[in-house]
Amino acid sequence: MKALLLTIATAGSMLLTAQAGAAVDAKAAEALAQKSGCLACHTVEKKVLGPAYKDVAAKYKGDKTAEAKLVEKVKKGGSGVWGPMPMPAMGGQVKEADIKTIVQWILSL
Description:
Layout lengths: L1 H34 L17 H8 L5 H11 L19 H13 L1
């Protein structure tokens, strides 16, 4: 019985730690988006030049290929999905690992 309670307590502690880490990761990813220039054209809540990140997350919710698609879109740029305003290619300016982190954050919204 003690072993079971200890296991439950440990699992609960790990869950709380993971949730706290996720909030820190979200803040770090948002800061990375700011540093990378993403927030000049996007915000989390409302459309600016580009779509709101919450709208992007909603559009791709449940799409298991969304992360790969969006990483490529950020790297190569494009237009037409959210309107006529083109998104410039960011692959030469932002490291791929940073793009992936930002995209994962956007999809988590």
